[in-house]
Amino acid sequence: MTIPQAPVRSTAGPALPSARGPVSDRLMAMLRDEVGAQTPLISEPDAFGDDLQLALYVAYELHYRGFTGVDPDKEWDPDVLTLRRELETRFEQALRDLVDPHADAAALSAELAALGGPPSDAGPAAHLICHPDLGRLREIVVHRSLYHLKEADPQAFVLPRLSGPAKSFVAAVEFDEYGGGDPGRSHSDLFAELMRDLELDPAYGAYLEQVPAPMLAVVNLMSYCGLHRRLRGALIGQLATVELSSPLSSQRMVRVLRAHGCGARAEHFYAEHVVADAVHERVMREAIAELVTAEPDLLADVVFGIRAASLLDQRLDEHLRRSWQEGRTSLRQQGLENSQP
Hints:
By secondary structure, the chain is mostly helical. It is built from 14 helices and no strands.
């Protein structure tokens, strides 16, 4: 599948995407101040489906860079926040229905140990090492662009909600994610370079139309936990999931890029994570230890954050694998059509 390269945009925020159902259609109408935006929802959207996940993603994006043509004051519009809250409740309940509710110190230790293990041999990266396919590699990068072009931003929301050593440890990880004070070295900048080398558009949000619900849900969990003080423990669990699993999974992605004949510049993003996240793994273990010592009631939320993030990562991997097994793109066909220059 050929992914067309969209024209690079000069605006800070992307255009509003097309609605994918009645819920996202209602939200878009609210953001455009159209008549009828306040009509009650008449459906129970799938908590993991395109309609609900797109609506959540768009609502959260108002707290990041917003959208071209949308009034910045919509970030705090009461009707938008009321709708977002309803969708968040459904999303969280669906996650809690699927993850193991048992959480104690032994469970936390087991989850952290599992995160440090090797990535699955059934994952998409392992598939691409054995069966190189540049189109499928580019699909993975398109999916991941929704997070990596704003890497560390969702987790930054948690910093003012922490205190003591845990806050210092998480801040140290975030500092590295933003390039350690060196402009152009932030991980989002390195990912943009990777996209350019693969002839993809590195503009923020350029591929929102194409990315389906499984990847939207991965990013939405970060934003949800980051924006709610109640879920600060879950956000630390989500961040630990990324940092503890990243060194080995990044090594595998370096192998993928080499198998596809990509150069050192293309490898740089993942090679950087092999080194940086090996340090972050230790720092996040210390952050969790300090957090649950200072606030023991947050231990269950940390475990929930790890399990929910792992579940959504698995769902994304399954979507990629199933799509490729069926000989089709893992991206939305409608989005591909709409992105033609």
